[in-house]
Amino acid sequence: MHDGADTNEDVWKSDHLVAQWVAGTGERERRRSEQRRLMADLLPFADDEAFTFVDLGAGTGAAARVVLDRFPRAEAILAEYSPQMMAEGRHALADYEGRFQYVEFDLAEGDWPAEVPTGVAAMISSLSVHHLPDSRKRELFTEIFQHLAPGGWYLNYDPVSTDDPVVESAWLRAGDRQDPQAAAKRHHRTPEEQRRYENHVRYMIPLAPQLELLRAAGFEGIDVYWKQLDVVIYGGRRPEEPPG
Ligand SMILES: C[S@@+](CC[C@H](N)C(=O)[O-])C[C@H]1O[C@@H](n2cnc3c(N)ncnc32)[C@H](O)[C@@H]1O
User: Mind listing the domains of the chain with CATH numbers?
Assistant: First the structure.
């Protein structure tokens, strides 16, 4: 974890930085397509089932659109706090008009918008939870649990950190082999890239305590459904209620 002021809003509510991030979407999403599809495949719905799900910190809807593709009768509530990301997302999701709505929600606050009902069938998050301090992660997982229907699933795709220097160097070694430019990029960040990096890692924590937070919130079926180096998909479901 890195010290220093929380710069998250400065990054995600900046026209310039959001434009830069959006410009890299095509290449990033090509690399993530398998994980995106897996997240959709993990949801327990029939192909033609109608249901509503929530994407927390949805950005331009990169995770949600794969669920919308996988389940043609599904509808998405995209919770986001950046007007710039919402504007980009409305444009990017034009083909899904009528099947999604953005709602303004600051995940760092506990004030859930009225547009997110209780009894939601499923929730996902992708690359947003690591931007929250631990105390807020804990509260958020409980709030997600409370907003899910019994049997409802929550899945999170996110990077994790490690406290083990041996693991960290193994992650770096493999990452550098997979991307021959990675080491140079890491060692020669511009001041802006350095600020973004610090924002990226500020509240990132290891995997185990995050699974513990899910457990403490009441989830069952908790697993790490996918993992490669420092990126994971974990989740679980709110237990079914006994009939009666
Ligand atoms: C790395 S992007 C990921 C966007 C999208 N989920 C995806 O997978 O492409 C992080 C997103 O989290 C959003 N975010 C960060 N902090 C947030 C907060 N406190 N409340 C709501 N959204 C937040 C940002 O605005 C941004 O859209």
Answer: 8-161+202-237 (3.40.50.150)
